Amino acid sequence: MILNSSQIVREVNNSTHLDEALALAVKRSRSSMDANACSAYINDMQTDRYLLMAADGLACAAVGKVRVVRNEGLVGWVAAHQEAVNLSDAVDHPGYRHVPGTGDELLHGFMGAPVIHHGRVLGVLVAQKHERCRFDDDEAAFFTTLAIQIGSAIHRLLSKWEFSRRLNEPGRGKISICGIACAPGLSIGKIVLSQPADLQSVPYRKARDIDSEIQVFQAAVQSAKNELLAGKERMSASLSGDVLSLFDAYAMMLESDKLTAAAVARIRKGQWARGALRDTIFEMARVFEQMSDPYLSARAEDIRNIGRQILGHLQKVESGIGAGTYPKECILAGSEISPVEITNMPRGRLAGVICIQGSALSHVAIICRALGIPAVMGLADLPISHVEDCDITVDGNRGVVCINPSPEDIHAFRQSIREEQALSARVEALRHLPAQTLDGVSIPLHVNLGIGEEDLSMLARKYEGVGLYRTEFLFIARDTLPTEDDQCRLYRDLLESFAPKPVTIRTLDVGGDKKLPFFTIAETNPLLGRRGIRFTLDNPDVFLTQLRALLLANSGLGNLRVLFPMIGRVGEIDAAIELLDRACLDLAAEGRAFERPRIGAMVEVPSAAFLMAELSKRVDFFSIGTNDLTQYLLAVDRSNPQVRGFNDNLHPAVVHVVNDIVQRSRSHGKPVGVCGEMAGDPASALLLLGLGVDSLSMNPSSLPRVKWTLRSFTMKQGRELAKKALSIENESDTLRLLNHALKAAGLGALVCEN
Ligand code: PEP
Ligand code: MG
User: Fold this and answer.
1) CA 682 – ligand 2 centroid, Å
2) Which residues line ligand 1 (CB under 6 A)?
3) pLDDT higher for 183 or 732?
């Protein structure tokens, strides 16, 4: 039977173990190509040798034993040259070397294709036949295509294989894995595996008694609801109203007709309660998973959490181990973790959370941030089944975990925790001091808000102002557009809390990777599509409602600054101002009290950097969005982890463009700030200071370090560093320059070496 490569790729992608995937690949390709033998060699990073890991038609005893060196024999040749070969007789090739134990002396026709992922040769696929003849062109094309197609699956499985092998080594090797930083802070502890009920392993079974299955199911749903409400009660002293309402959201999902009615209907058709629950939950989760919007796809995780919770009650499984058996500082680890598991942990024992799935927008991440528990999620390479009881360090600032750290690592990490604590104490002491350089130049440090902050008055006491309030989350976290009143209330709260400090609210910036759940824009390349100002200008009713709410909220306060996102042409800012004027006229005609704010443009589309003179005539201030500016300038999708390494704010082109924007806005007398992530990184903030930006706005958790940095340098030093950075040709040298400066100023603790 001839199999096409896509079917093989699907099977390989669905494999959970490297040897299983390779065995499949060689077996299927052998039958597809009519080869007498197929085999797969995998690069063992520890020894830099290629290990025979799967064979079909070759001496199986050699699997796991034969190892070849790079550049040795034909396998080594293919790996070293990263090039496929197709030979009528292997022995004719100058690279040929007999591989003892494989029986290859009986095989002549030889085809080898490298398996490559992101430039690294992971292995070599080999097909051989008895006859002295090459594989035909179709077979050769099939084989080389297959080797390319399975590259990313093999990379994922190989990482897991390497990790589990290292964990099983004597002395248990150390493993560092990068994920997504979801809640800041550093912690160290022992891994406790989350013990969710496993929906995946619910067997298929028929209901014996339909009525009693329905009763059991409904009772389990009720118990899950009671458990949630009890968890909410327990946490009410530690969590704010906004975060506590997540528990209500879960309770609502439990009451949802979609869930109970669909499961009961399945039971009525003959399924037992657990099977009906499994199918209903998977069906609901799939709908959310297929949504490309990160907020909505994160809801799939919530649905599965609910499902596991009900299953736990159906199984009448004790939800966890007793409080006494928890280590003093435990790091809860799981494929997915539910908010209930966090609230069920004995108080004071939970030091961190790590998770294979999850994102900064998931509810668990929100709860961790609210409780001040460091969390790293999206750890796709975490070998979860092997890590129970392991020591681990969790760096929620950088999104890095280290499993089985050496005593020296633990010592260094504890030192970092102490430094962080000392730094917090030190910064606390700086809280009332201005963000001012050693030679007395002040630079306002503002905060970026907009993702469900709880205590606005506390934030207002601590910070000088809001440099960026992202309004999109208000729109994304609901099923319909927020009304003028809804918006006005929220903006008013924010403005009142901070008054008279400045608050910059950005108008709706959706599209791209931020989609409105109730508004579909079908685009093949949404990052270059109708996002930001393009979307709001296309939907003037949506835009006008927001502008009216902003104007009304500002009435009698006057601390509002309105910022327009994704401005790339003069016509866009003109149209936005025209709508603002119209909103003012309408409100005046209605006799409503309002106040016109100062207006600004984000400089994040490269074209805006060339229109500073024209834009300056129209706006009061500029804010540089380095996240998008870098993305569009360097042609690097900022949310694609595969190109993470190319997305660098210190790239010389970014430094030059920021410099140009600052120079031009200054020459037109308009203040310019930076509100992208770059502003919150101490080394980059120092560079931005030297380049002459007027203010910086960042995540509140980044602000203390940036303040410390700016207070440790003179403006003159900053300018000298910026001048040097402008003559540097690559980002790594710029980073070295800035890190060196931080260390020399005694801020080595802020230097991120990787
Ligand atoms: C930016 O692009 O730098 C920015 C601050 O906007 P956002 O991250 O919301 O796109
Ligand atoms: Mg942006």
Assistant:
1) 20
2) 468, 470, 509, 604, 625-628, 675-676
3) 732
Query: If you measure from the C-alpha of residue 566 to the centroid of ligand 2, how many angstroms do you get, rounded to a whole number?
Result: 7
Cite the active site residues.
Answer: 363, 675
Question: Which pLDDT score, from 0 to 100, does residue 753 have?
Answer: 57
Ligand (nearest to CA of 630): 1
3-state secondary structure 132-162: CCCCCHHHHHHHHHHHHHCHHHHHHHHHHHH
Instruction: List the Cα angle 711/716/721 in 5-degree steps.
Output: 90
Q: What is the pLDDT of residues 630-683, one digit of tens each?
A: 999 999 887 665 676 777 899 999 999 999 999 999 999 999 999 998 998 899
Query: Residue 38 is inside which H or E element, if any?
Result: strand 37-44
Residue 69: which region, alpha, beta or left (left: phi > 0; alpha: psi -120 to 50)? beta
> Which ligand minimizes its atom distance to the CA of 627?
1
Pocket test for ligand 1, best of 449, 451, 470 (most atoms within 8 A of CB): 470
- How far is it, in rounded angstroms, from Cα 657 to Cα 726? 10
Which residues are CB-neighbours of 195 under 8 A, at least 6 positions away? Answer: 319, 320, 321
Helix (H, G, I), strand (E, B) or coil at 499: coil
One-letter amino acid identity for 116? Answer: I
- Which amino acid, residue 560? L
- Is residue 703 pLDDT above 50, yes or no? yes
What is the 721 CA–ligand 1 centroid distance (Å)?
25
CA dist list (Å): 15 to 19, 148, 335: 9, 17, 17
Q: Closest ligand 1 atom to the C-alpha of 623?
A: 5
Which of 360-382 are b and which e, b meaning 16 or more Cβ less than 10 Å from the residue's Cβ? Answer: bbbbbbbbbbbbebbbbbbbebb
Out of 566, 628, 648, mutate this one to test ligand 1's pocket (max ligand atoms within 8 Å of CB): namely 628
> Does the predicted TM-score (pTM) go above 0.85?
no
Only one residue has tokens 């919530």, namely 302
Identify the residue whose tokens are 């601390």. Answer: 559
Q: What one-character-per-residue DSSP string does 621-677 give?
A: EEEE-HHHHHHHHHT--TT-GGGGGG--TTSHHHHHHHHHHHHHHHHTT--EEE-SG
**Nearest atom within ligand 1 for CA of residue 604:** 2
- Between the CA of 366 and the centroid of ligand 2 the distance, in Å, is 22
Q: Across the strands, what pairs with 87? A: 110
Q: Which ligand is nearest to the CA of 451?
A: 1
For residues 179 and 360, the answer to whether their CB atoms sit within 8 Å is no
Which residue, among 425, 386, 359, has the nearest Cα to 704 in the 3D structure? Answer: 425
Give the ligand 1 atom nearest the CA of 676.
Answer: 3
